[in-house]
Amino acid sequence: MSVRRKFDEQLDTLNNSLIEMGAVLEQAISKACRALLTQDIALAEEAMQLEIEIDDRERHIENLCMKLLMQQQPVAKDLRQIHAALKMITDMERIGDHAQDISEITIYLSTTGEKYIKRLDHIPKMAEATIKMVTESIDAYVHKDIDLAKSVIDYDNVVDDLFTTVKDELYELIGANVENGKQSLDLLMIAKYFERIGDHAVNIAEWVLFSITGTHAKQKGIIKE
Question: Does position 108 have pLDDT exceeding 60, yes or no?
C-alpha cells in the first residue's frame, strides 16, 4: 500500500469519527430537549451521561490527528483539514457541555414539581435548528461542501431570532407577575445554551471553509465578528 493511500484511509477514519461524534451530539441535544419538555429526570440524566462519550470521542479524534501529523507527510490542504478537525472537536465538545448544562437545569426544574409558566413552543424549535446546524456543518467538512458550510452560517439567524422571541416572551411574563421571575431566568438560561450551541456550529462551519479554501470565514468577511 502506498504512503498516500494509507494516509487517505486514515483521513477517512477521521471523517467517520467526526460523523460518529456528531451523532452523539445530536442524541445529547435531542434527549436534553425531550427531557425538558416532559420534565423527565431519567432522560435528562441519560443526556448528561453522553458527555462522557463525547469527551472520549474528542480525545480519540485528537489522537488520530496527532498520528496523521507525526507519522505521515501531509501537504498543505491535508494540514488544513487536520487543523480544522482539531478546532472543530473543541467546539463539538463545548456543544456537549451545553447539552449537559440544559439537562442540569431541567433536573432542577423537575424536582421543584412546578408546572411551566408557559408552553415551551420555541425552545424545541431552537433544539431542532441547532441539531440541523451541527449535522450539516460536519457533513460540509466530510464532503468539502462550501455552499453547505455557508448555509450553516446563515442559518444561525434562525436560532438567534428564536432566542429573541423566547427572551421577549419571558420578559413579558416577568412584567406581568414578578413571581414568574425565577423560572423565567432558568428557561432563559436554557434558551441561551441553545443559542450558544448554534454559535459553536457556526464556528465549525467557519473551520470547514478554512479547510477547503485556506481562508477563515471572518477573514473573508463572510460573517460578522
Answer: yes
Please write the tens of the pLDDT for every residue from 40-58: 999 999 999 999 999 999 9
- Alpha-carbon distance 166 to 33, whole Å? 15
Give CA–CA dist 42/223, Å, rounded: 39
| Domains defined along the chain, listed by start | 3-220 (1.20.58.220)
The grid coordinates of residue 61 equal 479524534
**What distance in Å separates the CA atoms of residue 202 and residue 95, rounded to the nearest whole number?**
11
Q: Supply the pTM of this predicted model.
A: 0.92
Confidence at 223, pLDDT banded by 50, 70, 90: very low
Rounded Cα gap, residues 20 and 57, in angstroms: 8
How distant is the alpha carbon of residue 50 from its chain centre?
14
The residue ranges of DSSP E strands in 56-148, in sequence order, are none
Q: How far apart are the first and last CA of the chain?
A: 45
Q: What is the DSSP letter of 117?
A: S
